[in-house]
Each structure stands twice: as C-alpha cells, then as structure tokens.
Write a structure and sequence with these properties.
mainly beta; Neuraminidase; four-stranded antiparallel beta sheet; 52% strand; disordered C terminus
C-alpha cells in the first residue's frame, strides 16, 4: 500500500477494514477508507506519535512524545492536557469515559471522559502497552518484565510472570485469555489463573513488537524489523517479511567492516564480499562499535553483548532484561552502553557495572572522546555528559527523540533524531541546525568536522561540509531495495557505508572535482 508521507508509522487501530487510523513520526496521522490512505488533516503535532485507539471514527485518541495526547472528533484533531512531559507509548480503554495511557518511568494516566489525571503505578519501568477487558480489569506491560494489573481501584505488580524480559505488547480476548510479547522472542499467556510460557516461532529468533488476536484463535506476531508469524489457531506459519535487516555498522578500515542486525545477524565485509558470522546469542543486535580491529563490541535485546578480539566473538552479556540500544568503546577495557529506561552500563574488560543516569527516558546512543568525556542522547531530547565521575544533564534545545550522537572534537558534536532534528554542540551551547531532508534521522557519523554524514528513513542521506548540510542523491533503484538506512560508518578516507532494512550495505564516496 502507498502512504501519504515517508515517515515511520508506529501504531495502527481501526473499527473495520475500511476505517483504520495509523500514527507516526512528526505527528502524522493517516486514515484508510478501504481503498486508499489519506492524511488526516495537517500534522497533528511536531511530536512523534506512538499509540492510537478509539471508540468510534469520531472519537479517536493518539499519544506520543513529551506527554502529547490528541483527540479526533471526526473533523478536527485537538490537543489535550496530559499534565506530564514524559513520552507516552500506548492508549486503550473499554469505554469513552474509561481510558488509560501509559509511558516512560511508570507513567499511567486515566481519562474519565472529561480530563486526564495521573495514577500511581509504583514502578519506574517503561510501560509500553495497555489492554483491558473491563473497568476493573486492565493490564500494562513494560521493561524489567513489568506486568501491572488494575482492579478498578489500584495498580499492582504481578510477580508470577515467568520471564525477566522487556515486554512490548499485550492483547487479550477475555480476562482468562491474554498474551504478552517481548524481547528475545518471549511470549507469555494468562489463562485466568497462571502466567506461562507460550511457544511461537519467534522464540529465540526475533523480538516480537506486537501481537494481534482474532476471535477464532488466530494470532499474528510482528517482530523486529520485518519478522511476521501467523497462527490460524492450530499451526504457526512464518510469513514473508524482511528476513534480514542491518541495524548497526562499524569498521576499522575499508577492508574490515562489521554489520549486525535482527535475528542474531552478524556479517563481516572484507572490502570485496560479505561473509556470515555465526552468532553466540539468539538476540537481535542493535549497534556495534570498536576501538580497534581486535576490540569490537555489539549489543542488543535482552542485555545481549558480545566482544570480538580479532579472532573470535565471546559472550559478555549484561545482566538486564532491557534492550541495549548502543555501545561506544574507548578501549578493550573501557566500554559504555546505553538502553531502555535511562540505563547506562560500563565494561572494564571483565564485567559490566551499572551507572546512574538520573533520568527515566530511554537512551538511544552513546559516544565519546575519552573516558572522562562521553555523551549519551535519548528520548524527549535528553542529552547527558559524563565528566569522568558522574553523568550530568545538558540543556537541550529540543524535546524530540534523539537517535544518535557523534563528534569530531570537543567543540564539534552532532546529535540527530525524529522530525529531521539536528542539534550541534560548539563547545558552549547546543543549537538547532537546519536539516537538508525532512525525515526521521537515525544515525550520524563522520571522519572530520567537514565530512559528516546522516542517514534516515526512506534512504535519504545528507552530508555536512563544515558549514551546512547538503542532501545526497540516492539512486532511485535503492528505494525499494533498502527501504530505510538505519546506521552508517565513515572510514578515515571519508568513504561512508550505510546499512538498513533488507540487508543491503551501500558505499558512498565523495568525488574530488577540484581541477
């Protein structure tokens, strides 16, 4: 299907096959009438929208970044007062005056038909999904295996869930038939008395992002970067999706490049061909970085972490159920990693230790110059700096999610993110830069202050020459092949390598046209 805008869509909800709403980055809402998708008015908000739900086509709610809540009355989208600034990830209700929204740092909001008000969750876990069967029976799930139940009065945590993984979605058909899915392929089921493991093809193979249930026992699980599994109630089938996606890339030279991705993907490029590297872990890997050819680190879902010493990979996983989103290596014995819920870890060559970030929002990227100058960026525009002894929050000029950070020097640092957001540190202040492309920006990397690249959704790429950003022409034939560029790395000679969906690696080299 063709959609009106080239952005990431994060959630979908509908009343019927000809009445669907999807929400995404940059406040985009689109509607499907059974024939085509059209934009539902202008962009609702500059904030990324994460969840959508409604009771009727003229009573729809969307939630997202910075506590954004919007309501559609069939004609106009109107902002609502949430009273919070933390990101919201899902919204669900059983009737028009009984609706919950959930989000970062244990945020739970309740709507009584008139206004939104916070409710105590008694958890700091990131809550990613909420579902209910009645006004006295709601469930919310999230990081650290959080499963919370609302009994009509208070939320309490359920302790007998047989997993310690990050749960990303929950759906049910009745109060005694509920499913939750999460990192490292986990699916759990509640039968009204007990929670138990539920075996699916996603187990130990992909990270399920969402589950949809049908009235006759049908189930569809959508996994990390394209994995799709369908059950007719009796037998599971793996549907054609994007079986391979590269999520991270790093190299020590043009002839020594590593790429990692979904479904435990590890590949090595020697300058001529790509070879498959057997993985020690079943997890999807999100990012990779190294300080040398024999000190390379990759991280991913469920605390996955592996190290390459120049000859073999070894398992150095972190003791956490959180997804680890990025890693930066100062040396083989000094490595930083960041992830869900503001988590930061440090590796000393033998073990990981937890560092205090002071925030609850997810951190998406980490990068530094030395052991006492490290930066981390994340949701809600958060920017942190490590001074060698503690993490300090910096004044950020944006509230959009920041996906990546990289710098050429202590006065030339770039961070990029949602809604074509680019911010720059000049040694004194963070300021907003003008982007050459309108898109979600996923990664930034360079070889010098005047040779910096950004990649993002729709294969759109841009280059910084030290003064301004320039859009880079990407051949049309790559659009259906790549779909999105998700990560990039730049060699010392200035050549840029980009990877993304469908398992393609692309090299871009600037041509010197000086006479």
């Amino acid at each position: 299907m063709t959609t009106p805008r080239d952005v990431d869509y994060n959630a979908i909800w509908g009343l019927a096959s000809d009445d669907l709403y999807a929400v995404g980055d940059e406040g985009l809402v689109i509607h499907y009438n059974g024939t085509s998708w059209t934009q539902s008015g202008t962009a609702v908000t500059p904030a990324d929208l994460r969840g959508v739900w409604g009771t009727a086509t003229d009573n729809v709610y969307a939630v997202g970044e910075g506590g954004s809540i919007w309501h559609f009355d069939g004609t106009t989208w109107t902002g609502m007062t949430s009273g919070v600034t933390l990101d919201l990830f899902d919204v669900f209700g059983v009737q028009s005056d009984h609706i919950f929204a959930v989000g970062d740092n244990g945020t739970i909001l309740f709507y009584n038909g008139t206004s939104w008000a916070p409710q105590a969750s008694n958890t700091s876990s990131t809550l990613t999904a909420v579902w209910g069967s009645g006004t006295d029976n709601y469930y919310a799930v999230g990081s650290h295996a959080a499963v919370l139940r609302y009994n009509g009065t208070v939320w309490t945590r359920i302790l007998n869930v047989p997993t310690d993984k990050f749960l990303l979605d929950i759906q049910g058909l009745a109060e005694d038939n509920i499913y939750a899915v999460g990192s490292t392929g986990i699916t759990v089921h509640y039968n009204g008395s007990n929670w138990s493991f539920y075996d699916t093809p996603a187990t130990d193979n992909a990270t399920p992002r969402a589950i949809v249930l049908g009235p006759a026992g049908e189930k569809c699980i959508v996994g990390s970067r394209g994995d799709i599994f369908y059950s007719d109630g009796t037998e599971w089938t793996t549907l054609d999706g994007m079986a391979l996606a590269y999520l991270g890339v790093w190299g020590s030279s043009n002839t020594d490049i590593h790429a990692v991705g979904n479904s435990a993907t590890i590949r090595h490029f020697d300058g001529t061909s790509m070879s498959i590297v057997p993985s020690l872990l079943p997890n999807s890997f999100t990012k990779i970085h190294g300080s040398a050819s024999d000190a390379v680190f990759a991280v991913g879902g469920g605390g996955a972490a592996i190290e390459y010493d120049g000859s073999a990979w070894s398992d150095i996983s972190i003791s956490t159920d959180a997804r680890v989103w990025d890693v930066w290596a100062q040396s083989a014995t000094d490595v930083f990693a960041v992830g869900d819920g503001g988590a930061i870890w440090r590796y000393n060559g033998s073990s990981w230790s937890t560092m205090e970030s002071g925030i609850g929002e997810t951190l998406n990227s980490v990068w530094g110059f030395s052991a006492d100058t490290v930066y981390a960026v994340g949701n809600s525009g958060r920017i942190l700096r490590f001074d060698g002894s503690m993490w300090l929050e910096e004044d950020s000029p944006v509230s959009k999610a920041l996906n990546s950070v990289w710098g050429a020097s202590a006065s030339e640092i770039f961070a990029v993110g949602a809604s074509q957001t680019i911010v720059h540190w000049d040694g004194t202040d963070w300021t907003i830069m003008e982007s050459a492309n309108q898109q979600t920006l996923y990664d930034v990397y360079g070889s010098a202050a005047d040779n910096v690249f950004i990649v993002g959704s729709g294969t759109k790429t841009q280059w910084y020459d030290g003064e301004e950003w320039h859009a880079i022409f990407v051949p049309d034939f790559l659009d259906p092949i790549v779909v999105d560029f998700l990560s990039c790395w730049v060699a010392d000679d200035g050549a840029m390598y980009a990877v993304g969906l469908t398992g393609v690696i692309v090299k871009y080299a600037l041509v010197d046209t000086t006479p």
